[in-house]
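Follow-up to my earlier ticket, as requested here are the two runs.
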Amino acid sequence: MAIMTLEGVSKSFGGLQVLAGISFSIESGRKLAIIGPNGAGKTTLFNVLGGQLPASGGRIRFMDQDITHLSPSRRLHLGLARSFQINSLFPGLTLLDNMLLALHGARYPHFRFFRSMKSRGDLYSGAEQIMRSLALLEMSDSPVSSLSYGDQRLLEVALGLASEPRLLILDEPTAGLSTAEAVNFEKTIRQLLGDATLLFCAHDMDLVFNLAERILVLYYGKLIAEGRPEEIRANSRVKEIYLGGRGV
């Protein structure tokens, strides 16, 4: 069953067309990766899916509902969560405070300034569960800035999953990580994801080919190839256009 379907989605900035008639679907519980060179339109596509940018044309359906013109917050409360290339954490706040804010935003539509966060026991239990899963429980009162960059990236993904989304979108989740951090990220993310539906883009080909069950290739705003990892690895057009003729 398709959890999200795109039908001819396009995006233009003035006379510049960045996305041209993108159509594909994501099956529930599957792991789908989108790859492509810099400037291919991957982040623009994710911004359109998340509602940060309006589509110029086409339709986006999520859970059998047309979300093409819905706000990011409405999409979040329907079960669509995402992360960004740049961390969106609050570095000066503690690990616990970051998690409470993220969990509150995902679970409750309004923030009441005169209601104590301690009255939301579910938020504290959820935060504790996240910290334990990342082996960070002892650092709950430490500022996020004291965490390694790799742990910060894992925390952001864990916060996205804490809202129990139907679909999680990750934009370059291992960007800026060392090789060792990227290996640890892949291992931990597998444990965190479980059966969750995932759409992600990355330049880290090890992550893409190890984690994705299906891969789409985007080139100058158009999908040029689609298939299982082994099919994309053997695709001559992908080698020529995306990798300059080199193997993947």
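Run two:
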Amino acid sequence: MHTKNDIKYMKRCLHLAKNGLGNTCPNPLVGSVIVYNGKIIGEGYHKKAGEPHAEVNAVNSVKNKTLLKKSTLYVNLEPCAHQGRTPACSKMIVDLQIPKVVIGCRDSFEKVDGKGIEIMKNASIDVTVGVLEKEARELNKRFFTFYEKKRPYVILKWAQTLDGFIDFERKPETPIKPNWITDEYARIFVHKMRSEEQSILVGTLTAEKDNPGLNVRDWTENNPLRIVFDKNLRLPEKLKLFDGKIPTIVLTEKEKKSKKNITFLKLDFKKDIFRQLFSFLYSSEIQSIIIEGGTQTINAFIKSNYWDEAKVFTGDKFFHKGVKAPKINIEPEKKESVSGSKLLTFRNFNAF
């Protein structure tokens, strides 16, 4: 049974770790606090891949380092055991003679996977594992999916009207532009979502009709890798996706030479193209992908059970006719409001 203090300080670790969302990949989200005599004397989180880990930042924030030998270090993920871009945190903890370490969950990455815990236990450090384990694994769902299932975490996202349409009825003369169902504040929320993931995909029709930029222009963080299906290379080069400003992958069955920031990835469309895509993303260390449309593409992911999470916005509009929105036949995990829209979050715990 874990103590109230263990739970309190682990919650703080998880809160700190979230500050790194969108910046730490391929590394996990990690926060750490150091407690002496019932008081936090140091804390930190992993800010960016290649920079010091959470445990190092927490130690560095402690003013009186002599207190470390009498303190407890809390961290939401098992301290690393290998020398990567930065030194092994488990060995640092041993060297500093920190007597007690409390961990949220074990790290299933093969270079760690219990080795950090073993290093500390062999040094007679009191190690507790499993405090808020479910929450700790949830925080790093992308990381764990990537290393345990050898694929990216897949998020479906769309907006629909109150009468269940994802797009209005378009005619040949209809201008090529996005069809906004939600308001500008919901769009800012979506751009924040995009900044937290590593890649984003749309189908050919969505690229053709909406001409999306798939960037985070209404937010301030990283743009995801853009991916578009274009089997026969029929999309016009004037589309925003081909402006060369953001790395973009075109999935096609044709041979075409890549150019600045645009890579043409040849797939075998007679076989499972999604599996081929996931294999490419895994080899590229891309841990997450948002599927933003359209209906045909999203339905294909749903039918194949190739999704982990879905974010469905419902705006305050009626189209009466048009393109029907995709459907997920399970109860939502979460319901919330974003500006004037409703947002339902679905989770697929039986994903591929």
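The only thing I checked on run two: The chain has a mean pLDDT of 94. Let me know what else you need.
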